[in-house]
Write a structure and sequence with these properties.
The complex is a heterodimer of chains A (113) and B (111). Chain A is built from no helices and eleven strands. Chain A is an all-beta fold. In chain A, a hairpin with a 4-residue loop joins strand 7 and strand 8. In chain B, strands 2, 4, 5, 6, 9, 10 and 11 form a seven-stranded mixed β-sheet that branches. A four-stranded antiparallel β-sheet of chain B has the order 1-3-8-7, with no helix packed on it. The N and C termini of chain B lie far apart (37 Å). The chains are: A mainly beta (113), B mainly beta (111). Chains A and B meet through strand 4, strand 5 and strand 10 of A and strand 4, strand 5, strand 6, strand 9 and strand 10 of B.
Chain lengths: 113, 111
């Protein structure tokens, strides 16, 4: 079941630069998308979300872009900070019903000094 | 800031034994979930629970699994007869709507 894919298992960025994490999905029924950050031995922490009726949502240093025609979303972090180093998961949902989240495989972001 | 809590943080059990994983969701949330993450794999949905009944479950959530909200605060996941392949991190989550908030997880090790 590869309905949500994160094709880059890792990404390394210098402090202060922009981090761009990508996510692709195949299920056109998905209408709500979320990004979570995860540190080892902790649960996923919610970062930012976007509804399919929007193409951009911004919260501080984090911006999520949604391209529905390409079934693609991206998370931009600017400026990147060392504390941003973690695994980032993209998740998608068909709202209503059970609200099940379908997760991608994650991208390990490393922000270097 | 309210948070989801889970106990125990680590549970070791013998194959075939029953385990109960406990969660206290955020108090004003109405939807509750269990997910798991096998080492090196992605987070997988197990079950969602609303209004005292299961609203959706995955194919992983077979007859060996059950969930319960025994009182106004706890939400439990029971595995009746554990298998080696049940070894994973189990995450509880809750939501009012939209974003789901996750607990720190219980690491289940089946020997």
């Amino acid at each position: 079941d590869q309905q949500v894919k994160q094709n880059s298992p890792s990404l390394s960025v210098q402090e202060g630069r922009i981090s761009i994490l990508n996510c692709d999905y195949t299920n056109s029924m998905f209408d709500y998308f979320l990004w979570y950050k995860k540190y080892p031995a902790e649960g996923p922490t919610f970062l930012i979300s976007i509804s399919s009726i929007k193409d951009k949502n911004e919260d501080g240093r984090f911006t999520v872009f949604l391209n529905k025609s390409a079934k693609h979303l991206s998370l931009h972090i600017v400026p990147s900070q060392p504390g941003d180093s973690a695994v980032y998961f993209c998740a998608a949902q068909v709202t209503g019903g059970g609200n099940k989240l379908t997760f991608g495989t994650g991208t390990q972001l490393k922000v270097e000094l | 800031e309210p948070e989801v809590t889970q106990t125990p943080s680590h549970q070791v059990t013998q194959m075939g034994q029953e385990v109960i994983l406990r969660c206290v969701p955020i108090s004003n949330h109405l939807y509750f979930y269990w997910y798991r993450q096998i080492l090196g794999q992605k987070v997988e949905f197990l079950v969602s629970f609303y209004n005292n009944e299961i609203s959706e479950k995955s194919e992983i959530f077979d007859d060996q699994f059950s969930v319960e909200r025994p009182d106004g605060s706890n939400f439990t996941l029971k595995i009746r007869s554990t298998k080696l392949e049940d070894s994973a991190m189990y995450f509880c989550a809750s939501s009012s709507w939209g974003e789901q908030f996750f607990g720190p997880g219980t690491r289940l090790t089946v020997l």
